[in-house]
Amino acid sequence: MEQRDRGSVKRLTDPRALRALAHPIRMSLVGMLRVHGPLTATRAAELLGESSASCSFHLRQLAKYGLVEEAGGGQGRERPWRPTTMFTHWPEVTGDPEVAAAAGLLSSVVAENYFDQTMRWLDARSAEPPEWQHAAQFGDTSVYVTAAELAELGEQVTALVDQYLDRQASPELRPPGSRPVTYLHLAFPRMDAAGRLAAKDHAAARAAAKRGAGEAADAGRGPDRR
Fold this sequence. Notes:
Radius of gyration: 24 Å
CATH architecture of the domain at 3-129: Orthogonal Bundle
CATH superfamily of the domain at 3-129: Winged helix-like DNA-binding domain superfamily/Winged helix DNA-binding domain
CATH class of the domain at 3-129: Mainly Alpha
Strand order of the largest sheet: 2-4-3
Number of helices: 9
Strand content: 5-15%
């Protein structure tokens, strides 16, 4: 992939494409190609611990929806494949029930993949070099923000991470000792007891403010002199 395409995004809106990507092996293939591609089905199978026939089939399915493409050269399972973009985006809000269901399915599979990656790290962490154990991020912070502030915070974090994207497509830019790192972007309203209580308090405050505004408007109109 060209360096200029480091921030390229594949936008999925077809529910068939969303469902096609919502498969652990296909998701792993896309991720592997974005980090180590181009790869043949045979090599991808070796890296993922799958059969070459399975990887060949899943790569063709991904190509059907424009997520990967042939890189040229080779035949059959020895054809190299590459990703078409560095990122994938799908609708977060949509009025189409079928798209919403397919997007929800894909998001669930991605979340399971995040959990799997996290558990793999936790299982292996004690055997990792001390500098990587200290550098790895693991924790959470609860903050009170508006929807606009949360969106702005996400943009700020993305801008910080984007500084390192050139290294994805250009190995010569990677400093000695660097490794591929998963930086998870997760921030959402809390759905536990504390979050539900805060949401209830917020709804009550909004209702009170609305009533106050209505009463003020009525007072401003003065008495009816008909």
